[in-house]
């Protein structure tokens, strides 16, 4: 298994542009999570899905952030418009039952 | 609500010395506990977990953690560290069940010096 796959690994964009981050979870996992990691705030849970359905999006910072999971093998996190304070490493993770999460390698987003 | 406290943001230690990374949690219900490790520029990797049964759990690379319900702790220990253990370590708690949501601590940087 290739694990959780995130793309791109690095993204540099200008303020005001739309950014789309992508995630392919491990096949068979029924939970998918999006986290954001910064030095100031540590790891923050943004949103998570169960069987492709969003369960808790209370961590999504603003309406500029949106996430979708159109099928069991793909999810996107979109920021529109992006701002410099959105700069962070965004992690996707997937899980089956209670065995902990498997994290992707992350997308390092820099908004200039 | 659950929460996780990692009191030490950074723990410097010399190679081959023992180390303990502290983790305390608060929850009104039974919990499941995890330690994750993050090496530089990488994602988080599961190090070990406590779901039930024996309160002492071990990882394949020499770390161990003990679930102590009375002290609401899940400290991570290693009797002799290596340079390669330098990383950020995160404690996490989950109620499990239908929500399956992990709450992470703020992390402890283990800095192993030669």
Account of the 3D structure:
The complex is a heterodimer of chains A (112) and B (114). Helices cover 0% and strands 56% of the residues of chain A. In chain A, the strands form two sheets. In chain A, strands 2, 4, 5, 6, 9, 10 and 11 form a seven-stranded mixed β-sheet that branches. In chain A, strands 1-3-8-7 form a four-stranded antiparallel β-sheet, with no helix packed on it. Chain A has strands at 5-7, 10-13, 19-24, 31-38, 42-50, 53-56, 65-71, 74-79, 88-95, 101-103, 107-111. With 114 residues, chain B is an all-beta fold. In chain B, strands 2, 5, 6, 10, 11 and 12 form a six-stranded mixed β-sheet that branches. Chain B has a four-stranded antiparallel β-sheet with strand order 3-9-8-7, with no helix packed on it. A two-stranded antiparallel sheet of chain B has the order 1-4. The N and C termini of chain B lie far apart (41 Å). The interface between A and B is medium-sized, with 23 and 22 residues.
């Amino acid at each position: 298994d290739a694990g959780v796959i995130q793309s791109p690994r690095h993204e540099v964009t200008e303020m005001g542009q739309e950014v789309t981050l992508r995630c392919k979870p491990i096949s068979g996992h029924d939970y998918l999570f999006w986290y954001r990691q910064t030095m100031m705030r540590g790891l923050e849970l943004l949103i998570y899905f169960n069987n492709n359905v969003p369960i808790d999006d209370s961590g999504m910072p603003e309406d500029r952030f949106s996430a979708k999971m159109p099928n069991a093998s793909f999810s996107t996190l979109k920021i529109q418009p992006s701002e410099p304070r959105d700069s962070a490493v965004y992690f996707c993770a997937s899980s089956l039952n209670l065995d902990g999460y498997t994290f992707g390698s992350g997308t390092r987003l820099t908004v200039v | 609500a659950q929460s996780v406290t990692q009191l030490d943001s950074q723990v410097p230690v010399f190679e081959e010395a023992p180390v303990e990374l502290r983790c305390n949690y608060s929850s009104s219900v039974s919990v499941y506990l995890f330690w994750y490790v993050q090496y530089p520029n990488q994602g988080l990797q599961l190090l070990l977990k406590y779901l039930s049964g024996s309160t002492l759990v071990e990882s394949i690379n020499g770390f161990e953690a003990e679930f102590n319900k009375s002290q609401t702790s899940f400290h991570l220990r290693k009797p002799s560290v290596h340079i390669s253990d330098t990383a950020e370590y995160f404690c996490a708690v989950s109620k499990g069940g239908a929500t399956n949501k992990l709450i992470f601590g703020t992390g402890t940087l283990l800095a192993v010096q030669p």
